[in-house]
Design a protein that fits this description.
Strand order of the largest sheet of chain A: 3-2-4-1-5
Largest sheet of chain A: 5 strands, parallel
Oligomer: homodimer
Shape of chain A: elongated
Order of helices and strands of chain A: EHEHEHEHEHEEHEHEEHEEE
Radius of gyration of chain A: 19 Å
Chain lengths: ~240, ~240
């Protein structure tokens, strides 16, 4: 069998790679991915061949990677964060049906919920839900339903893709839904450029979250009813009596 | 300020550490943690001092680590998976109020939802909820409410702590709740000893999940309505048309 690896490289800085991800990248001949992430990889693995495609070119990228792997090349597809969470792993597996000689292995990475949480403190210390606000492939009604359900059951919530140029008001819409269930004082956190140059964090109440500046490089955290601020950190207690 | 690091070491094998976690562990003088995880660390960092406490000794462990850090020692508290997700980060921050000279930094790690997903394929390819079935510090009613909410909103679900000796029937109870909302054919996955010796995985329908063998080293995944099996892998599609 030919091997194809799909590798989560974490939020950006090389230091977020796992040792396994580093090994697999070093061993590969071809690194495939979205322009931005391949450029991150190029800095450290300049001796490789690269397959680079732009945004919304995911299927083309997967085809090229699977094709190269089926010809016996050692191929790595890189994703930011984790390869499975809103990443390429699932799409590669589905498209891999047409490439029966290629075996696909997922190499886990630090997804934004985890890396962003570490920047804010410990906001995901209890049960949590990860929800993407992108409606490119998911109807908004489904997103709205999940937001309402997560808020009503007092989950901590991590929002991926909270905004883009086209979707500048989506966080506002999400906040309206959350505020139907949650108190306006609920502690929230916003992290931009996690683990990259220009990293910024902000902790604020849910009542002010809609006005926060967010873009496609931002991850948003909404606490549960127990979340608090401890010495400037956002902390959701597990339940220990202190 | 004295620095104390709380470090997620991933599911077990050294290769799941991030480069940053490895650096912080190497730089530390004292490594503190639960017996099992400290023993994993001892294999690679035998030159360190160790603070080891058993299960349910979390507060004692944190006090000892904070005390050592406040005396100027370089201390690392290690957690399995990620330090923030059902880990020690939040507790350390709350207890750290009494140690104003100690600054606490979280080093992100690969939590079981991410590492277990990679073993199964790509089960968390869409919005997901992480829920712990441990009712040591959370009332069962709250857990049941979250299970029902996540299932009703068609989240993928990852269950932490699905069973212990005392709680041998909890997965059964959870499945009863899930089956009120989800089809019995819903694809599920079970992974035991993720990234360690004796790793085992199983993919099965929700109707059979209650009978699966699980213990405190097992992580359970319940797909959403779109989850399928692709060449033996559990895959939740993001929504691309293949």
């Amino acid at each position: 069998m030919n091997q194809l690896y799909v590798v989560g490289i974490g939020p950006g800085e090389y230091s977020f790679l796992t040792l396994e991800a580093e090994r697999v990248l070093k061993d590969s001949e071809i690194i495939a991915g979205y322009t931005v992430y391949v450029n991150l990889a190029k800095r450290y693995f300049s001796d490789k061949e690269f397959i680079v495609t732009g945004m919304r070119q995911e299927k083309k990228r997967c085809h090229m990677a699977l094709e190269a792997a089926s010809q016996g090349k050692k191929v790595c597809v890189v994703c930011s964060g984790d390869a499975g969470v809103y990443g390429m792993a699932g799409l590669l597996m589905e498209m891999g049906m047409a490439y029966p000689t290629v075996e696909i292995t997922v190499v886990a990475g630090i997804t934004a919920a985890i890396s962003g949480a570490a920047v804010l403190g410990a906001p995901l210390g209890h049960d949590f839900a990860a929800i993407s606000l992108s409606d490119l492939m998911t109807p908004w009604e489904q997103i709205a339903k999940r937001l309402a359900a997560a808020a009503a059951a007092d989950f901590c919530i991590c929002l991926y893709n909270p905004a883009s140029k086209r979707r500048s008001d989506y966080l506002h819409r999400a906040c309206r839904i959350l505020l139907e269930q949650q108190q306006p004082e609920t502690i929230c956190g916003v992290v931009r450029n996690i683990g990259r140059e220009g990293q910024k964090r902000q902790i604020l109440p849910l009542s002010e979250l809609a006005a926060a500046e967010v873009d496609m490089f931002t991850t948003v955290f909404i606490g549960n009813s127990q979340t608090k601020v401890v010495r400037g950190q956002m902390v959701t207690p597990r339940g220990y009596e202190i």
